[in-house]
Amino acid sequence: MSELLELAKQACREALKHGAELVDVQTSAERSISINVEKNGIHDAKENDSASVSVRSIIKGATGFSNSSGFDLNGVLETARRSAAAAKLAQPDPDFVTLPAPASWQEVPGLYDTGVANLSAADLIRLFAAEIDAAREVCPDVMVQGGSQLSISEQALVNSLGIEVARRSTNVGIWVFCIVRRGDNVGSFYDFDCARIKSDFAPKGIGVKACREAVAFLDSRKTKSATLPVILGPLATRGLLWGICYSAGAENIQRKRSYLVGKRGQRIGSGLLTLRDDGLIPQGMASGAWDGEGAVRKRVTVVEEGVLANHLHGSYTANKAHEENTGHGNRWGGVGPTNVVPSLGRTTAAEIIADTPEGIYVNVGSLMPHPVTGDISATVDFGYKIENGKLAYPLKNTMLGTTVFDLLNNLDAISSDYREEPGMIMPTIRIQSVKIAGAE
Amino acid sequence: MKQMLEQLRDKARRRGVQFMDVRLFETDRTSISVQDRRADKISQGRSTAAGVRVLNEGAWGFASSEVTDAASLDRCLEAALGMAAASRVKLGEPGVVCAVQPVVDTVRAVVERPPQALSLQEKMQRVLAYEQAGIGCAGGKLCNTMVGYNDAWTRETVCNTAGTFVEQEVIRTSLGTAMTAADGDVRQMAHEHFSELAGVELLDRITPAEFTEKAARRAVALLTARRAPSGKFPIVVHPSIAGLLVHEALGHNAEADLVFSGESIIAGKLGTQIASPHVTIIDDATMPKLNGSYRYDSEGTPGAKRTIIEQGVLKGYMHSLETAARFGVAPNGSGRAMDAHCLPVVRMSNTYFTPGKLTFEELLKDIDLGIYMEGGHWGYVFCERGQYTCHAGEGWMIRKGQLAEHLRDVSFSGMTLETLLNIDAVSNELKFLLPGMCGKAGQGMHINAGGPHVRVKEVVVGGQE
Question: Which of A327, B320, B426, B440 could bond to A291 as cystine, CB 3.0-4.6 Å?
Answer without folding.
Answer: A327
